[in-house]
């Protein structure tokens, strides 16, 4: 198994990317001026305003990586797919802030003023959208590691299940605390509990 294909590496890369995204969400992504009533006003849009949903995306990335390393085969591939979608979403949000910085700043300023739509603005992106794209790159590396190593991963295994959990699922406590079949299971077995 390659180094990237190890469970711990995939989780650590995804958690690092998530932490970077959470930190980036608190920083200024776009700065500039907005035309106000009294003239141009200097303003900024933080990451969670400029890229709505960034914090949620970061948490989804971390959860998807952990779930991918602890799940069965089908759920693992679904979680890895989610990890890829998260990386694409981060790139899309970041590129929007870089390419359309004045529109993003105008929209955020309109929201701050209690309006809808967008205000006339000039602005540019800071380094933080680029940092978020680096975090998306980490997620993609984790995805590649998950794809390369995921075929050989196992789930958590039976050592994490309670002893007797399977038999307890179909039984209930009797009058003296003993385990007995539930009425539903008795009907399934052909016994009619209403005749007791």
Automatic annotation (TrEMBL):
Protein name: Trp biosynthesis associated, transmembrane protein, Oprn/Chp
InterPro entries cross-referenced by the UniProt entry: Trp_biosyn_TM_oprn/chp (IPR019051)
Stretches for region Disordered: 158-196
Transmembrane segments annotated in the record for this chain: 51-70, 77-101, 127-149
Keyword set, alphabetical order: Membrane, Transmembrane, Transmembrane helix
Sequence ranges of Basic and acidic residues compositional bias: 159-169, 176-189
Tagged with keyword Protease: no
Organism whose genome encodes this protein: Janibacter hoylei PVAS-1
């Amino acid at each position: 198994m390659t180094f990237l294909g190890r469970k711990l590496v995939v989780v650590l890369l995804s958690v690092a990317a998530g932490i970077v995204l959470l930190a980036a969400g608190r920083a200024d992504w776009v700065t500039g001026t907005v035309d106000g009533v009294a003239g141009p006003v200097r303003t900024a849009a933080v990451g969670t305003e400029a890229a709505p949903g960034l914090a949620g995306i970061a948490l989804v990335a971390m959860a998807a990586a952990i779930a991918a390393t602890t799940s069965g085969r089908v759920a693992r591939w679904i979680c890895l797919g989610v990890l890829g979608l998260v990386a694409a979403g981060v790139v899309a949000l970041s590129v929007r802030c870089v390419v359309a910085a004045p529109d993003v700043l105008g929209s955020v300023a309109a929201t701050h003023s209690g309006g809808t739509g967008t205000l006339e603005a000039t602005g540019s992106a800071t380094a933080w959208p680029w940092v978020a794209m680096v975090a998306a790159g980490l997620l993609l590396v984790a995805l590649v590691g998950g794809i390369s190593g995921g075929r050989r991963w196992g789930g958590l295994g039976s050592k994490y299940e309670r002893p007797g959990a399977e038999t307890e699922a179909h039984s209930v406590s009797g009058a003296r605390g003993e385990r007995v079949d539930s009425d539903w299971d008795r009907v399934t077995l052909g016994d009619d509990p209403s005749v007791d």
